[in-house]
Write a structure and sequence with these properties.
alpha/beta, Rossmann fold, Dihydrodipicolinate Reductase, domain 2, four-stranded mixed sheet, 9 helices, 14 strands
């Protein structure tokens, strides 16, 4: 099999995870890592995003690993002019808009975009559709664990020097739902640990609590800590479950590394993306649009 030439745009936790896994996978050759900021890798060549166009005939699939709350949607619009792209965009309320935007640009440029490929949205999306198709009332619980997207959204706030956010389920509500009792309101609350100078803390706290699509409407506790204290929060674990009212059906997932699991899913589907491109199936696809058998060799053995 000819190696798939890949690039990575964005070099945070997800970008680093993609790099690590790609470098150990003989199906791929990592050409470059791109970033909006000045970066360095011990293993790969790096470039500014300003030089992206120079590689338009040298990269088959570009992994978009920027933040959903900041650059990813715009990165996709720019990148699809030159490359096939795959991303893990996870702002649920904007996913349909993101796919529509990517679909138009991909078709204009004879490219393929795989949008929102991770564990949620992603694997959990499969399970929600399956349970809903059986006529069930479906719920999703996340955590306790570190949310990459929410943490990144805080870090993008001006004068924030570092942050991490834990999504925490409200246990008594989850318990009621699983017993068959309908409950109202959110099923989660959010714990934020933030590093910032004291003079900026009141304004930062206000911005976090009111940030749409992430914290607005949720119980959110913001604790300001020192850089040394934040370093103690260095585990990127997460977990969650999709379940039905009464818990007749349940799918749960637990990972010690949120970014590595997301990277594994993106890498598996990037091979399918390249197949779609070679067969000229241009446009944007969600994970629900791609038959799961596509990522499994000898898939009938799994039946």
């Amino acid at each position: 099999m000819k190696q798939i030439r890949v690039g990575v745009l964005g070099y945070g936790n997800l970008g680093m995870a993609v790099e690590e896994l790609i470098l150990h996978d003989k199906r791929f050759r990592l050409v470059r890592i791109f970033s909006h900021r000045k970066i360095a890798s011990n293993f790969s060549k790096t470039e500014s995003i300003e030089n992206l166009e120079k590689y338009k005939n040298k990269i088959d699939v570009l992994f978009l690993c920027g933040g959903s709350s900041s650059t990813l949607m715009e990165d996709a619009k720019i990148s699809l002019k030159y490359f096939n792209t795959i991303d893990a965009f996870d702002t649920h309320k904007k996913i349909i808009t993101h796919i529509k935007n990517c679909d138009a640009i991909a078709k204009q440029n004879n490219k393929v975009a795989f949008c929102s490929y991770g564990w949620d949205p992603g694997i959990f999306s499969f399970m929600r559709v399956l349970f809903i198709s059986l006529g069930e009332n479906v719920y999703t619980s996340w955590g306790r664990g570190v949310s990459q997207g929410h943490s990144e959204a805080i870090r993008k706030i001006q004068n924030v020097n570092g942050a991490i956010q834990y999504t925490i389920p409200i246990k008594y509500k989850i318990k009621k739902l699983k017993s068959g009792e309908v409950v109202s309101g959110n099923l989660h609350w959010r714990q934020c640990y933030v590093v910032a100078d004291k003079k900026y803390q009141p304004m930062i706290k206000k911005k976090i609590i009111n940030l749409p699509n992430y914290f607005h409407g949720y119980k959110t506790i913001v604790k300001f800590v020192s850089e040394d204290e934040l370093k103690k929060h260095n585990k990127l674990f997460h977990c969650g479950e999709v379940f039905t009212l009464g818990n007749n059906y349940n799918f749960s997932l637990k990972t010690e590394s949120n970014p590595h699991l997301t990277a594994k899913i993106m890498i598996a589907y990037s091979v399918v993306l390249f197949e779609y491109y070679n067969s000229k199936q241009f446009g944007a696809y969600s994970i629900l649009d791609v038959p799961i058998a596509k990522i499994i060799k000898n898939s009938y053995k799994c039946l």
